[in-house]
Amino acid sequence: MPYSAAFGDHFYCQTDGRLECGHVFLSGNGLPARWETDGLFRIGELGFGTGLNACETWRQWKLTRRPGGVLHFVSFELYPMSTNDLSRALSRWPEIEAEREMLTALWPPEPGGTIDLALDEATRLTVVCGDAFASVSATELAFDAWYLDGFAPSRNSAMWSAELMNAVFAKTVEGGTFATYAAAGFVRRNLIAAGFEVERRKGFAGKREMLCGVKPARSGA
């Protein structure tokens, strides 16, 4: 179970991080149902961590994508892991063995800057290393869905700040969504203040609540 000494928190739910990804991030963003159309779908993630969300999303994408569809998974990560650490963390789940092997084969020996990987002919992974607020603010990309997966708000409040939530909202397409395991009051307030319509849902593995939401269309649009 990988643990961050910098933030004093585990990288994912101790019950089962892969199943949590499906419950919170995929289902919370209406996936994979929203992949039933052609064209590009772009996911943004705050906190790449072990790459578990990317691998599980890629696994489900391969099972459900349509011809002509392209998935671009973009993650913003301050402290990228080494190849060995990624491999060790992901080895817990045989369901994503193929994805783990490909990710670790492509992962640079000294990760930093912008890591851009072609996982297959219809899947691209980009990991932007550095401060999340600066990186999200600087990107010219627009996102259809967000995985808000920083360390717990009580341990890493900067990852849930009003400024960063505003930046996430600005980079989201109209009708775009977010999902997060976090349900702290200040996180919900920051997301609402940024402009998202926010909904509470049942959390994973006994956690009472999680949050998801949508960027509404502009009036008259």
Automatic annotation (TrEMBL):
GO molecular-function term, one example from the UniProt record: oxidoreductase activity, acting on the CH-NH group of donors
Gene Ontology biological process: methylation
Signal peptide per UniProt: none
Start and end residues of each MnmC-like methyltransferase domain: 95-216
Name of one Pfam family that matches: Methyltransf_30
Keywords assigned: Methyltransferase, Transferase
NCBIfam families for the chain: tRNA_MNMC2
Name this polypeptide is given: tRNA U34 5-methylaminomethyl-2-thiouridine-forming methyltransferase MnmC
